[in-house]
Specification:
There is one protein chain. The protein is mainly α. The chain has one domain. It is built from 17 helices and two strands. A two-stranded antiparallel sheet has the order 1-2. The radius of gyration is 22 Å and the shape is globular. The C terminus is likely disordered.
Length: 425
């Protein structure tokens, strides 16, 4: 650790700092609307979506192995946090986040990070698609100004919303659809540009010019949130442990996948050390303990922010710290402006991010996939909308377990590209 600090002092200069500052700025501008919208979607105070990034950044910077990976509130954790909040409010989020953080540290100690990296890509893609669809569905009420009760599976909520589209209010629908359109156009033209921030600013302008009185984010106090209180009952211990394990597993998969994506964009195509995966999970486990005690959602490695950081010049750990400092400055200097963001605009940002998570390239490849890959992909995506995230991932992975059992039954070598019977080689 000391030698690394000395090297950092010797080689760090103004040019590197400028790259880190610009990369951290872009990551923060992306994080602002997305963090607010994700926390709102989870049923938490919007500011907690930003507090996750601010509180966990120093720990991840100090202990993490990937120097430019940016963490924060992310969509993969959505079903777990939503369920916990519906049961026990902010305390429920704190409870499941702390349990998940402890499991992440256990994964690190037991060196399971190197094994979790082997989760099939098709299962991860299917999970991403299911989460994307869920994000869109859960925002439809806000986008169209409907006053419908939640509950039930996301798929059931989708059909309920469709049957009530006649009650749509044009004001929130206009704001949210404008945000979606601007985000999509800007992302296609300028990938480095913080499209969601521009889209939200345009929506605020439209709302002011047309004198709309839509629900707004409200005050975002620049202060440390109070510690979250929660209670345990003997009945729910087992359920919380299962849900916490599932959340930890999903966080671990996405942290390690994001690390791989970031290394790819940095031009480092060699495989990282197996120990790096374990250390990364340990860092996120410790960081999420801090976030969890305040009821903030768990931090996950986020590809969009991390890649934006790299593309805009971020090269060292300072970029992550700068991204957190800029978020604090945005709340301090621009908190009054941020508080007037219409909720419909944030719903549009969330819906657009859900649209991006649908992994259209995977759907185009679907007819060419092996049956086992296509089955795992579709099963995982659909199961997320019908059951829960843990079962969805388990069902997706079960396709490969069943395939392995079938090949062994037939005496075929599963590792051979052509499935040659073992006795013929």
């Amino acid at each position: 650790m000391i030698s690394n600090v000395r090297k950092f002092r010797i080689h760090y200069n103004g040019r590197i700092f400028a790259g880190d500052a610009f990369g951290g700025l872009m990551a923060a501008l992306i994080a602002l609307p997305y963090g607010l919208s994700m926390a709102t979607l989870m049923g938490l105070p919007p500011v907690l979506g930003l507090f996750t990034s601010i509180a966990t950044a120093p720990i991840i910077t100090l202990l993490g192995r990937n120097s430019v990976m940016i963490g924060g509130t992310a969509s993969p954790t959505l079903p777990f946090i939503v369920d916990a909040v519906q049961r026990q409010g902010v305390g429920g989020a704190a409870k499941i986040s702390i349990v998940a953080a402890i499991f992440l540290m256990v994964f690190s100690v037991l060196r399971l990070g190197r094994l979790i990296q082997k989760v099939p890509q098709t299962v991860v893609s299917g999970f991403s698609c299911g989460i994307g669809a869920m994000m869109i569905i859960l925002q439809l009420n806000t986008m169209f100004g409907l006053q419908l009760k939640g509950g039930g599976s996301p798929l059931g909520q989708f059909f309920t919303t469709l049957s009530n589209l006649g009650l749509t209010r044009w004001e929130p629908a206009l704001l949210s659809l404008v945000v979606v359109a601007i985000c999509q156009v800007l992302s296609m033209k300028w990938k480095r540009f913080p499209g969601p921030l521009v889209a939200v600013a345009v929506a605020m302008g439209i709302s002011a010019l047309m004198n709309m009185h839509e629900k707004e984010v409200g005050a975002l106090p620049l202060e440390i949130p109070p510690l979250a209180g929660f209670s345990w009952s003997p009945k729910e211990v087992g359920e919380i442990l299962v849900q916490g394990f599932g959340l930890a597993f999903v966080v671990a998969v996405y942290v390690l996948l994001t690390a791989r994506v970031v290394e790819h964009f940095r031009g480092r195509h060699q495989h990282s050390k197996a120990s790096d995966a374990d250390a990364e999970l340990g860092a996120y486990g410790i960081a999420n303990i801090v976030a969890g005690i305040f009821g903030a959602p768990v931090s996950v490695g986020i590809p969009a922010r991390s890649v934006a950081n790299v593309r805009c010049g971020g090269t060292t750990r300072m970029s992550n710290l700068i991204h957190a400092v800029i978020l604090i400055l945005l709340l301090w200097l621009g908190g009054n402006i941020v508080s007037h963001i219409p909720m419909a605009a944030l719903a549009g940002v969330t819906a657009w991010m859900g649209f991006c998570l649908l992994d259209w390239s995977a759907w185009r490849r679907l007819p060419k996939m092996r049956r086992v890959d296509a089955g795992a992909f579709l099963t995982t995506a659909i199961a997320v909308l019908i059951t829960n995230a843990v079962l969805a991932v388990a069902l997706g992975c079960s396709w490969y377990g069943l395939r392995l059992l079938w090949l062994r039954y037939k005496g075929i070598d599963a590792g051979h590209p052509h499935g040659v019977p073992a006795e013929s080689r």
